[in-house]
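#struct-pred

JT: dropping the chains for the assembly here, can someone run the whole complex?
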Amino acid sequence: MHEPEQAPPFEIVAREDFSDVTYLLEIRHPLMAKAAKPGQFVIVMAHEHGERIPLTIADFDRDKGTITLVIQAVGKTTREMQQICRVGTRLYGMVGPMGLPSHLGGAKKVVCVGGGLGVAPIFPQARGFKESGAYVIGIVGFRSKSLIFWEKKFRSVCDELIVCTDDGSAGLKGLVTLGIKAAIDKHSDIDEVVAIGPPIMMKACAEATRPHKIKTTVSLNPVMVDGTGMCGGCRVKIGEKTMFACVDGPDFDGHKVDFDDLMARLKRYAEEEKKALEKWQETCRLSGLVPAPSRASAGAPPA
Amino acid sequence: MAKKKTIRTIPQERTPIREQPPAERVRNFSEVACGYRLEDAMREAERCLLCPDPACVKGCPVSIDIPGFIRKILDKDARGAYDVITDTNLLPAVCGRVCPQENQCEGVCPVGESLEPVAIGRLERWVGDTAIAERWSNLPYIEPSGFKVGIVGSGPAGMACAADMAKAGCEVIVYEAFHQPGGVLRYGIPDFRLPNEVIDAEVANLVKLGVKFECNTLVGRLFTIEQMIDEMGFDAVFIGTGAGYPSFMGIPGESLSGVLSANELLTRCNLMRARDFPSYDTPLELGRRVAVIGSGNTAMDAMRVSLRLGAEKVYCIYRRTRAECPARAEEIHHAEEEGIEFHWLTTPIEILDDGKGSARGMRCIRMELGEPDESGRRRPVPVVGSEHEFECDLIVFAIGTNANPIIGQTSKIRLNRWGYIEADETLATSMAGVFAGGDIVTGAATVIEAMGAGRKAARSMKAYLGLRDTDVVYLPPRKGQEGKAFGIDLAERNFVRVRVA
Ligand SMILES: Cc1cc2nc3c(=O)[nH]c(=O)nc-3n(C[C@H](O)[C@H](O)[C@H](O)COP(=O)(O)OP(=O)(O)OC[C@H]3O[C@@H](n4cnc5c(N)ncnc54)[C@H](O)[C@@H]3O)c2cc1C
Ligand code: SF4
Ligand code: FES
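RK: done, full complex below.
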């Protein structure tokens, strides 16, 4: 099959594995690379039977026309993608950039905090702040030294970088909140803290800054379906108000977010997720036993 | 020639439509109403008085020549009937199924004064289905006009506008945020009411007209309306992004597990095929006892989907009475047959937590009807001391939607105070060359009104582009009209390319 001009859409042009759970995909989408701004996300469908999952844009390259996603293999879809998304294959769908872009102007000194699956998405924010002339303090958290990635990349856009590891194998020993504390102790003039990561981490960050009354922005990641404000599945509580994270966010004032509500709502499909994962692993196991060439039986559901 | 018919000579009984029995159909997603056969359609067509000044045509939002197509059915000319309908309505197989006929064409049919009105919707559906089965489509001779038109949203409004602009020779691209086209027809209305094959067939007809569909494209964010006009070479744009943003009531407990909008339930089940989980990856919360708040079409769909997903009991909670219920009569009837339990004059005031973060029930209050409000419907007012608990484990809100904010967030287009796009009577917006119609202008309405809006906008767009309005030109060749090539009146070739704007 020859398609000289038009390359297939959503083609995966690069992949990098940071650890056995974290991987990076670079996907070709020139229009989106042009439009994307820090803070936005995409919704991806891996294949026709797939679910729509939101992923924060970790980087975009306007010259190459690519969007970078960094994914943690935690559920069925992200694990399956880890297995099937190879360079040269394509995603079934990718739509975006979605959500309101982050406000990067104004702040002179900012702290950008990323932990877990939030490390990659905090990068475009740090770069954006740097480009707008701010003094940027980066704080990134990993479980241990061997899982650290993008350190150089972060250093290139941060005036200071604090690495935290749970086990102390590199940088500060402890959670990113320790890094925030260190930054606040050192700098009395921080205008804003931006935190992206698991809800529990963002909650801790917001609590760390609350006594100092430092503006704290968090990027919320509730369960989504359409990402266009049509289903309300992504609703979050911000102060007294209910908002839809996909169109009213994903950035919100961390001091107003009801994180307990967010965490409870993230568990809505926990049981079904588990079921899907188990079924998929079973299918993998069964098809692993089937001799290689018989593709039909490999694809068939377990009897 | 048909003899003169009177109310006494026509078949008195409305021709019944074959339906799957309720007990059987609540366990599958196949279509409930199986449609007329040829003989059914012929018999029902007999009931039409072929009025010289037909009320039904006025009752139809797009003024289909109803006696005209019924006469063709009587002549056993299904193809002719299809041609008559598609002069004004692009999607007969869809509208025949989902129009609220009782408030439109059938509601004003004079036969209905003493008998049941002519089953116009069923006849229209029969014609549409026959066309799909026979693979008919009316492909006009299209003279390229050199204009490029962008359509945002692939619901009925967008599809109708796309069709007309393609017929006017424009290069038409439809952008859709979802991975499949169709809008509410695809993600909202379930298969047992409108099978996917019908939508596929209608989309395929548009593709045959040269319309290009680009899914996975969120207009506003990937590129803006302004960019479409200024940079991407579109001469005109139509916005048909539909209503979105489902309302919740703002009562305690709404963020518990087991509480969701009807849109979410339906999208998961229909578009994402969660009903086939885990063969499809999208999950769905299942309820044993499901309470749906509201009683419009969306509510009916949510209830009947819940039954088919295996719920033991499904309740409809509505703060007014059956008389005010806004759903199509047929849907209420089907819902009743399927065993939905209706609780009229009831509204929830709190959702109760089971202690583990899921809903275990609702606290409800009874209502009574008071003075009429501005919509003319009597306003429900709470009855003091009528609070009671209601046990259920899935609570679905179907109480309406607000405007989708994305286009407003990303362009300078003027919105009204509710956030819907402001359009004048020609459906022109505050931006030159940009038109809008359907639910994003009117708020949630109907498929046929959205389609009518799409066509109206197309007419205005043609005027804006300086294209002659060519509605009448695409009639297929009729006997005795010789001066035509490929069914097009030679005098009406749309080669006039004067831009008026
Ligand atoms: C469950 C349900 C049942 C219904 N039942 C009936 C019925 O029986 N009879 C009836 O007459 N009416 C019914 N309606 C109402 C009817 O479906 C709507 O009035 C009609 O579909 C509106 O058409 P539309 O073209 O304006 O918008 P929609 O059908 O909503 O289509 C809009 C499309 O635009 C896309 N979109 C939105 N924003 C963007 C963007 N920024 N970029 C690209 N694409 C975008 C959306 O994804 C969507 O596909 C029902 C509605 C629902 C929800
Ligand atoms: S489009 Fe709707 S209102 Fe018009 S004739 Fe058909 S069913 Fe009746
Ligand atoms: S994901 Fe559906 S409204 Fe946000």
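JT: nice. Chain B has three domains: 18-134, 148-244+411-465, 246-401. The longest helix of chain B spans residues 447-465.
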